[in-house]
């Protein structure tokens, strides 16, 4: 900024000197032709006007008019090349040079100010226009991205729904044979039909997982969380797992206190189903899986603990660091584990929460916390007394 | 005894196939409609004992068909069978008069149990009020309405007036899912906001008093996000 003003000052000084020099030269040329009644005063006046209009502020115009007056006095008045104070009316000449200089400076100063303002306005308008165009472009891109997301989400949802119908037929037909006609078929075939049913049911859970994720993604303004009784959610998820894995052992003792937690109940049920199912299928232990609840400082914590062989280290690290669990294929024995855990992570994220996993020495303990509902305690003591 | 007739409204043939076989094994007579148009005609001409309705039909939204059937013959129970998952869909179907809701995929024994419950419920309503003496029983639990008394395995348990009303409401609709909003309206009246926290806390208290195991309840089942059901069989 300072550099720029000193540059402008240097330029203005140059202009002043140059124009004065030109005026001096022209006057010098004209002097022999016009004699005493020369026009040097007019030429210098013109120079002062030009300088005032080309430079910034009053300084250079005033300086030029003073120098001009001296120049005229010294070089272009009798006696030449001599400063003559005795000359009559000298102060008048001085003032008559100064006044136009000041007026021109004031006028051009104004003009310059207006011009500068106009230029500034134009610049701002241009900037606004450019910004507007940029915003418009970004808006379009966002809209396209949203539209793309919506399309993807819709396709995913439609496909998942459509998968359900054949899965219902496969699982339902298998369950019909197993429950009504088992005695009519050889034992090994019955075993195969059992496998068909198990796998169809597993696929249904995966479809439900995909639908859960599309639901989380669809709710752009965030999920509508409602106060729910945690033990109802836990009870329901354990009941569903027990139906699919009748041999599994899962323990849950509800706490004495009643605390409601804010959640989307079906999504949190899905989280618990995934965690419990992982424990049932992959922990490799027959000891009971323990599900429990803890209340602490306005939070409700859900815990799922198994006594199995522990998580693969990379998955444990990903959960600990809250980075997405990779869903790449890891061999059929732990099929779906990554998908289940990453669905848990995205559902919990939508609840402003996250999944934790700790190595519990023997087995793994998964947990997550949800906000407790406000006004949690209802005290209804009025009993029927007869 | 005349066979009870079940109308299956479903456009997927594989599903129709196994449902038909399973229901015929149970000595029901089965009629099939693969579109809403067929369903309306068969419904009015056969007047089935029960309808199994798939909400995703090729020619009409199953929800509209449900409304029409319930308008014409509210006494015929309708069980909705649907691939749609979320609870708002279930609540809507139940509020429109569906007697039950089975989500796809379902097991055959679950479906048969629901059908038996719905049929029993319908016949009880037709033959007069259930439990005319006002004494309801399920397992060890007895609700004595005239004496305002609840006993569990013969032992009196103390419950609040609201808890009593909730139990009575569930017993009077045994086997049927009651939505949160329906129960709140019946017990607290419509002035209570949509917030169903008060119902939920009451229910949690009832369950503690009945010593319910949340995983294997003996009396009251939870339909997550939808409501509660007094178990039947």
Model description:
The complex is a heterodimer of chains A (386) and B (233). Chain A folds into 2 domains: 130 residues, no CATH class; 149 residues, Heat Shock Protein 90 (2-Layer Sandwich). Chain A contains 9 helices and 7 strands, in the order αααααβαββαββααββ. In chain A, a hairpin with a 2-residue loop joins β4 and β5. The N and C termini of chain A lie far apart (92 Å). The longest helix of chain A is centred in the middle third of the chain and has 91 residues. Chain A has a 5-stranded mixed β-sheet. Chain A has a two-stranded antiparallel sheet with strand order 1-3. Chain A has 386 residues and is of the alpha+beta class. The C terminus of chain A is likely disordered. In chain A, 63% of the residues lie in helices and 9% in strands. Chain B is an alpha/beta fold and 233 residues long. Chain B has 2 domains: 122 residues, 3-Layer(aba) Sandwich (Rossmann fold), CATH 3.40.50.2300; 96 residues, Arc Repressor Mutant, subunit A, CATH 1.10.10.10. Helix content of chain B is 42%, strand content 21%. Chain B contains 8 helices and 12 strands. A 5-stranded parallel β-sheet of chain B has the order 2-1-3-4-5, sandwiched between helices. A 4-stranded antiparallel β-sheet of chain B has the order 6-7-8-9, covered by helices on one side. The longest helix of chain B is centred in the middle third of the chain and has 19 residues. At the A-B interface, α4, α5, α6 and α7 of A face α1, α6 and α8 of B.
